[in-house]
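Comment thread on ticket #2218

A.B. wrote:
> Attaching the input chain for the structure job we discussed in standup.
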Amino acid sequence: MSPPVSPRRRVRQHVRWPAGQDGSVSLMLVVAVLALLIAVGLVVDGGQKLRSTQRVDDAAAEAARAAVLSVQPGSTVRGLAPRTDNAAAVRAAQDYLSAAGVAGSVQVSAGRVQVATTSTFTPSFLSLIGLGPQTVTGQADARLARGVEQEQP
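C.D. wrote:
> Ran it. Output below, let me know if you need it in another format.
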């Protein structure tokens, strides 16, 4: 009676590997894994850039809204068309931007407020291949209007 053969030994007896192929990894597998890692990096860092862009756009919109709310109360109370206090509008927008931690500029003219914002973010995955900090920008404008069902002059 012959001694029992281990299952590992049985597989080796039946499978014949080509000479020199034991333990080698195909170049195709290495390229596929690298491509998969780059794709994951693009998705993650692309999402991060999208969130950063949305953040600076939202900050610009809210700063413009805060600026427009700087109404000169005297004219509005007397029933005249509302007007903004330009200096107070710029101050309100800059205060909002600094509280939000976003850099930006504010311009006020003729009841219209324009806010431009910028911010940077550093990619998580793609910084490993040399992609450095990215700049994102946002902008918004608002104007003062009055009316309940439609805008009144």
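A.B. wrote:
> Thanks. Noting for the ticket: The longest helix spans residues 27-68.
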